[in-house]
Amino acid sequence: MEDSNPSPQGLKVWVHRRRTKMSNSNSATRGKPLDLIVVGGGFGGMYAVYKFREMGLNIQAFEAGGGLGGVWYWNRYPGARVDLPSIDYSFSFSKEVEQEWTWSEQFAAQPELLRYINFVAERLDLNKHFQFNTRVTSAVWDEARKLWVVKTDKGETYEATYCVMATGPLSVPKEPDIAGYRKFKGEAYHAARWPHEEVDFAGKRVGVIGTGSTGIQIIQEIGPKCGELFVFQRTPSFTMPMRNQKLEPDYVAEVKRNYAGLREAARNSAVGGLRPQSTRAFFSVTPAQRRSLLEDAWRQGGLAMLGTFSDLLLNAEANEHVAEFVRGKINEVVKDPVTAEKLKPKDYPIFARRPCLDTSYYETYNLPTVHLVDCFEEPIVEITEKGVRTEGREIELDMLIFATGYDGLTGALLAFDVVGRDGHTVNEKWNEGARSYLGLMMEGFPNLFMTTGPNGPAALANIIAISENDVNWIADAIVHMDRQGLCAMEPTKKAEDDWMAVVASLAGRSLLTKAKTWYLGTNVKDKPQGLTLFTGGFHKYREYCAAATQNGHANFRFEQRDKSAAA
Ligand code: NA7
What we know:
Layout: E1 5-6, E2 12-13, E3 28-29, E4 34-39, H1 43-54, E5 59-62, H2 71-74, H3 95-100, H4 110-123, E6 130-131, E7 136-142, E8 147-152, E9 156-165, E10 187-190, E11 205-209, H5 213-222, E12 228-233, E13 239-241, H6 249-257, H7 259-267, H8 287-300, H9 316-333, H10 337-343, E14 356-358, H11 361-364, E15 370-374, E16 380-383, E17 387-390, E18 394-396, E19 399-402, H12 411-414, E20 417-419, H13 426-429, E21 448-450, H14 463-484, E22 486-491, H15 493-509, H16 538-548, E23 556-560, H17 563-566
Parallel strand pairs: 3-9, 4-5, 4-9, 5-6, 7-20, 9-21, 10-19, 11-12, 11-19, 12-15, 13-14
Antiparallel strand pairs: 1-2, 7-8, 8-9, 16-17, 17-18, 22-23
Helix pairs in contact: 1-14, 14-16
């Protein structure tokens, strides 16, 4: 699907499309209006299709990729792996799927995740509702007819009462902002558009640009396989040991017996999962106890470090102690002190960027063939035909991998024309930053829903749990409208303003705003900056969602169906 046109050099090119011209040629309207259109075939889109089909709605879904899975369809790069426990990172809505599917590892790798996705799709017969390799190019609200008119890059036009944007928070790869990046004549890949064919690293001089979660997974995986590996690091990440394990049959059987309780606990947690959590403040225990708790968590691995203290993202001093503990671990592993020093993050709080889980990241730098290029000391000037030119030298490469991240949270909806009431676009509405009510709806865009949208908890909690919550909420809204004879629904401006104030007030207390990240939009040139995430926890988010539909739906503006038209 994507905009991955092989250039003459074989370089995969991806185009960051903030605004696509509306396709108006060769359009064909497909029959009578549908009830509902779903855009996107990741976890949100899959559950949406299932839920709305089971409700008896007439639906059509579109997915730009050649299959289901969203991020897990595209991100086939070496070492790609989920950083939440697989048991959590799975659908809870189908008891059959829960019982029939068996995870093999605590943290599943991408091929297993994709097998799971395809298993669910087949088991629940979802594929037939999706038109694959099809990108939606515009969605326009027709005020007179109270429906969405949706066009695709196949030149087709569809109409539907409701439109669900399940476009995901991480679906638009960021175009590298490096001069000459298309010039390179060797093999070039973006991690988020990795080819389906196997890539051979043996004996090659490979460069990786980017050291976020993606870069870290790639580097530790290919480091031992390359002839030489050059890591171009701008901001170092904190990473902790994953200590991944095979799941034993007895454990899996126990989980399957207790799924209902586990899911309930996850739904009532801040992260939508079974991650360890603590109510203990950092300075409430002695320095020796703190050290011992951190050592235990480090040994245990996985997400244990996040569960050591309750105030890690609220108390800067506590946070710095934990950051220093991790810096000490880097010293213990990395043999060359100069490299160790460069790998230590120093200018932002730990956990303010997505914490990474690794298997052998720091160890990789002990290989004589792996070289760290510190882009602060030695900035990249340009990509050349032969490799990367820094301020000091030209590093010749056979292969260049961009792990430069995404235009997160808002990129997908801004990539095409979404036009609401009175011709106003989402681009205009989000000109100074993404606005929404609950990350689910926007004032001025009737009957348009989002799953895991901006100003919800996406990125900070289990995306599958959020998707299920959001789809269920949308389903309830549609049932309500149907029962009340309503044809259009949107949040009031006041409801949206109040929600944005809640989001901003919580963000103001969080250390998440103290790092430059895709959470804040600082990674994309000219993007409005600010934390467009609800930081109050998934459990609280669910309470807000539930409250929104109580008290007579006072936070929404509805329109009554024209009875004469319906008759
Ligand atoms: P991230 O976390 O946004 O990381 C992107 C990395 O790419 C980061 O280290 C950037 O450095 C680096 N980058 C981007 N542009 C450049 C240029 N021009 N020069 C050098 N380095 C650059 O994306 P990921 O894909 O790793 O992870 C995204 C999410 O996926 C993650 O949070 C998990 O939720 C899973 P910078 O920080 O800008 O200095």
